Amino acid sequence: MPSSAAIEAQGLVKTYAVRGDKEGVRALDGLDVTVPRGAVFGLLGPNGAGKSTTIKILTTLARPDEGTAIVDGIDVLRRPDRVRRAIGVVAQRSGADPGATGRENLVLQGRLHGLGANAASRADELLARFGLTGAAGRLVKTYSGGMQRRLDVALGLVHRPEVLFLDEPTTGLDPESRAAMWEEITRLAGEDGMTVLLTTHYLEEADRLAGRIAIVDRGRVVAEGPPDELKGALHGDVVHLELAAETDPAAARSALQDLQGIRNVLVAGDAISARSDDGASAVPAILAALQTAGAPAASVTVARPSLDDVYLRLTGRRYSESEDLVAEGANRS
Ligand code: ADP
Ligand code: MG
């Protein structure tokens, strides 16, 4: 019996050779992920976490050093040809030909997939669905970012795949185009019953769009489940504090750790977060304790746990800082 999951990857390891670095870059370090059928599943992680490498392996574009992967019941390593027929792929970088029209791109893609004489009607159907009928005859290089991305998704759908892979489908889009893309992706999984695996480095996108997410950190999945469940596992409220200039975070931390009802005190730079069953009523005691310790706060906010807090709890780093770390390494892929 074929596996009931749409995607099952186990123990994926991938190291890239890098000039001048004997060990290379370990992009995946034993990544496991199981994606149920017919839903939007998000791989969330900062730049450099290993999302694109995972997508490349699952879509047969790269081979892992170790591990196994099954997509739509097919072994990716043994039968890459069959996997390619079952899936649609939208890479992080557009694969459309900018020197051809949107319609030409779609028709060519249809022919490559063996649609023959049906390629033209399928192209028109997809152009209509993605609001591109009016721009069908224009060169892709004249399209806006949102239009190009919609065409990319349409190209991935030409052959009616069972499983669609979207690598950062909304990165670089303005908020309006992003919202339109979210709606379209939701529709693919809902009305069309397709399985959609998307990657994103936007916390909000994973939270709003995906029924389940896997948080990827340094080539491993560190948490998996519905976003609300992951957040709900962090009981109580989160109190975020920014320390006043030149305050010693260590002094602030030890002052907070001694307070009753305060747990999980985490320091990230000059920001501190802690959890409390009732954040609002804990604030006066927190501020007083910091004052007494000579480590006053410049600002304080109380919030329900967010995915950012989940990430911090699991990795000891703030999500935004992890992004900065790898941004220095440039956007290689
Ligand atoms: P993400 O998509 O989450 O940003 P990637 O899978 O693209 O992450 O990259 C994971 C790590 O592997 C990063 O450190 C990245 O710099 C490195 N990497 C990716 N592709 C290559 C490559 N072709 N050669 C060397 N290193 C690479
Ligand atoms: Mg990527």
Automatic annotation (TrEMBL):
Organism superkingdom: Bacteria
One Pfam family linked to the record: DrrA1-3_C
Organism: Actinomadura rudentiformis
Alphabetical list of PANTHER family matching this protein: ABC TRANSPORTER ATP-BINDING PROTEIN, DOXORUBICIN RESISTANCE ATP-BINDING PROTEIN DRRA
GO annotation, biological process: daunorubicin transport; doxorubicin transport; response to antibiotic
Membrane topology: Peripheral membrane protein
Name the UniProt record assigns to this protein: ATP-binding cassette domain-containing protein
All residue ranges annotated as the ABC transporter domain in the record: 7-243
A GO cellular component entry from the record: plasma membrane
Alphabetized InterPro entries for the sequence: AAA+_ATPase, ABC_transporter-like_ATP-bd, ABC_transporter-like_CS, ABC_transporter_ATP-binding, DrrA, DrrA1/2-like_C, P-loop_NTPase
Claim: Cell wall biogenesis/degradation is one of the keywords in the record: no
SUPFAM superfamilies: P-loop containing nucleoside triphosphate hydrolases (SSF52540)
